[in-house]
Amino acid sequence: MSTTTSSKKAMATTGKRTETLEQAVIRFAGDSGDGMQLVGTQFTTASAVIGNDVSTFPDYPAEIRAPAGTLGGVSGFQINFGSRAVYTPGDTVDALVAMNPAALKVCLKDLAPGGVLVVNSDEFTQMNLAKARYETNPLETDELDKYRVYKVPITSQTLLAVKETGLNQKAAERCKNFYALGVVYWLFDRPLDVTIRWIDSKFAKVPAVAEANRRALQAGYNYGETAEIFSVRYRVGKAPLKPGRYRNVTGNQAAALGFVAAAKLAGKPLFYGSYPITPASEILHELTIYKNFDVRTFQAEDEIAAYAAVLGAAYAGCIGVTGTSGPGLALKQEGIGLGIMTELPTVIVDVQRGGPSTGLPTKTEQSDLWQAMLGRNGDCPAPVLAASSPADCFWAAMEAVRIAVKYMTPVFLLSDGYLSQGSEPWRIPNLDELAPIKVEHPTDPADFAPYRRDANGSRPWAIPGTPGLQHRVGGLEKLDVAGTVSYDPANHQRMTELRAGKVENIAAEIPPQEVYGDEAGGALLLVSWGGSFGAVRSAVERAREDGQDVSHVHLRWLNPTPRNLGEILSRFRTVVVCEMNMGQLQMLLRARYLVDAYGLHKVRGRPFMVSDIRAKIDEVLGGR
Amino acid sequence: MTTMADHPVLTIKDYKSDQDVRWCPGCGDFSILTAIQKCLAARQVPKEKVVCVSGIGCSSRFPYYMDTYGIHSIHGRAPAVATGVKLAKPELEVWVITGDGDALSIGGNHFLHAIRRNIGLKIVLFNNRIYALTKGQVSPTSEQGKRTKSTPYGSIENPVHSIAVALGAEITFAARAIYNDPKMLQEILERAANHKGTAFVEVYQDCAVYNHEAFSYLTDRQTRDDNILYLEHGKPMIFGKNRDKGIRLVGMDTQVVTLGQGVSEKDLLVHDEHCESPTLAFQLARMAYPRFPTPLGVFRDIEKPSYEAMLFDQIKATTAKLGPGDLNKLFASGDTWVVE
């Protein structure tokens, strides 16, 4: 917890002290059936509504329901909230809510020394301790001495609080997550009204459940207020956010909204073909709701069919999008090659996860860059861009569609497990902030040729149903302009160059690369892409506050890269590429710019910690 | 009001592209190409309303020879590509042109799922029982014992019956024709084209180079009448040069019988294309040379809602309920707050 002021002013009503914090990280952890994701989301919304900047990250097991109470079944939700810009879900936890011994055991290593620990003391039974492989009860030893431990009998207090609602024992116990949330709301001085409204609307059809959850929430809050155990509560003020209306979005939600918006702006139906895969499935779930936007979702029989259908839909004039993750992308690549050969506009969202093979399905990584860049047979270049934060997935999705239709090409949008599941406030744009997406379908048969290119190098998007423009596309090499099958060697050379040139042309409309820090150069430049933005920016921001000579370049476009990138890289004595893989962008930058770039590579299934980056900065610059 | 002058009569020539057809001389594909062009001309389908989607293989060059829209896609994936076309523009007539390797081996999954969805695709499978484009390997429809480049000691695999597979996925229209009977082929293609939902037509086709005369028992004047059972709805199953043989059901199995020796027409199976249960069609689909005559004609023709009809019904119903999509409303849904 970064404390700016510690107000010793006693609160008149309770006699409890309030500390004002610049930023704090809290994690709710419990069994996967305990509703931790739900209260985490509620805490996020409540924090955002009172003006904090927030960043969240859920952490749940790959198994749907591991045996209750076991280490494998622990589900967590972490929120970083602050009165300054928050870029990551936080390295270490300042306050941990542990609903059972297993949650404590799994999460304690992330709790900062001196941190707040709220435990549900009712669940520390012999049986639960054994399931969590505790030989002795940590609440009765000195193991937790370096934390501020609050033992709250959450289960029994919840049962008492909801007794009069008439719910059976099991249903009543299920309200304990709201009791815990109430305690934390008191501890961090959050209003209850947002959550109460949510409960009322969510459980409108089961008033007893709504009543019970409301009572549990209020009882938890009251416990904080009246019980003797808490001597201090914390306040985190408003962050300087851009004015406007906000909502909280995960990366997958934001991507879905971006695609709907892009299709609407283009005046075309959106066709989303996908096969369920973690962590990309929510994009399908989200889009399938928006049928009144003429969104056509198609859950295909496999990954290959998903992209194949998207390509067919694009040929017939839809905005074609598919979403997947690493193993699924591997299956789609032959189809994407066909997309590049037929020069049809499609977007492939790859929500990267830990690999290779099935790897770590619920964990994050950035190790599909090479797959997106290089993973197809033949010389088969495609534009590649990456979103930098959950909310940025909206803008990146729109940009991917705009480039796809303008340049008649498949476009890769790289997201990752962290961005997709993490959330942050998204400033809702006014429609006039959204640049129109221009789509033209030729209708005049005079002078039509399926591979005649415009100034961008794009071929015309003539769609079936248009009289006189019948033409055939396919995987065989096509004759320049005429588009008939051609085995001519010189033509193949020319077409290969035209396809590559078209992708290179996109560089003309990518904004020049910005440098955070010293445009003129300096001792150290950190380069990041995709979901590593937050950790690197936080670290560089703080390092610069500490006077270190370090700057940051975050790449949105990986292919093509901004025109001035090589020039920027040459102005720094040391360049370090920070990425959650073993050096994929590092190698591309070395190859493209002959720059002696070093790498910071972490593949631990979780986003970079700010401290990882700061340690690297210190290592290169020789310490603070 | 449109007049005839606005829509000149389309002839078979109108559906031909300017590309030279490059199949080998004597290839059975030529007659299928002509039959599909005739089927379109007979129904006066505007050229721009037709999309031919193929996979990989000799037959899959088909779209290049048609002056319609077309996609020569990748191996096995044509039904999936065509699904996207159909869902983008359901008013189009979408033909899937595929072969025995393309549809039943590498593309088996897509074949199965297009059929179970009952999406409005017309799938024409050119079955020559061989991998021809790759110069002569065993295919999933090659007979057991078949010697090919990849099975020099004879194939040890069981062949798949494509119509049986299609029936397993509850196909709503399944038929079989043969390349050397263009009249019947065209009739069947027309029925397939007019069918709502997935229509599947298997066409036996001779590969003149790698599997020549694989179907001679069905094409040879001497033997064909004894080996073909023409399926006619509502008619007893009679076949043979002298129309003296028939098919009857004994227990759960079909049996070839000779009429007159204590067996009369009324003992025979009567064909029913519209039977709700696929059992009869399945029995027919498994009848194979030399034990049985090969059924040609329509195995099954039933009505079920198509995938695209149901999809657009959902879109229509949702739009009626919620109103047409409004981005402002969409963006601001859920919990929102204002930062001053």
Bin the strand percentage of chain B. 15-25%
Taking the sheet with the most strands of chain A, its summary is: 8 strands, mixed
CATH class of the largest domain in chain A: Alpha Beta
The overall strand count of chain A is 23
Number of separate helices of chain B: 11
CATH superfamily of the largest domain in chain A: Pyruvate-ferredoxin oxidoreductase, PFOR, domain III
Task: Point out poorly predicted stretches of chain B.
Answer: none
Strand-helix topology:
The complex is a heterodimer of chains A (624) and B (340).
Chain A: E1 2-5, E2 17-31, H1 36-49, E3 53-59, E4 74-82, E5 93-98, H2 101-107, E6 111-120, H3 126-131, E7 148-152, H4 154-162, H5 169-173, H6 176-187, H7 193-202, H8 207-226, E8 232-236, E9 244-250, H9 251-266, E10 270-274, H10 281-289, E11 295-299, H11 303-315, E12 319-324, H12 326-342, E13 346-354, E14 360-364, H13 369-374, E15 384-386, H14 392-407, E16 410-416, H15 417-421, E17 423-427, E18 472-474, H16 489-505, E19 522-529, H17 533-545, E20 550-555, E21 557-559, H18 565-569, E22 572-579, H19 584-593, E23 598-601, H20 610-621
Parallel strand pairs in A: 2-5, 2-8, 5-6, 6-7, 10-11, 10-12, 12-13, 13-16, 15-16, 19-20, 19-22, 22-23
Antiparallel strand pairs in A: 1-2, 2-4, 3-4, 9-17, 13-14, 15-21
Chain B: H1 29-42, E1 50-54, E2 69-72, H2 78-88, E3 93-99, H3 100-106, H4 108-117, E4 121-127, H5 162-168, E5 173-178, H6 182-194, E6 199-204, H7 216-219, H8 224-227, E7 228-230, E8 238-239, E9 245-250, E10 253-258, H9 279-285, E11 294-301, H10 307-322, H11 327-331, E12 336-339
Parallel strand pairs in B: 1-2, 1-3, 3-4, 4-6, 5-6, 7-11
Antiparallel strand pairs in B: 5-11, 8-9, 9-10
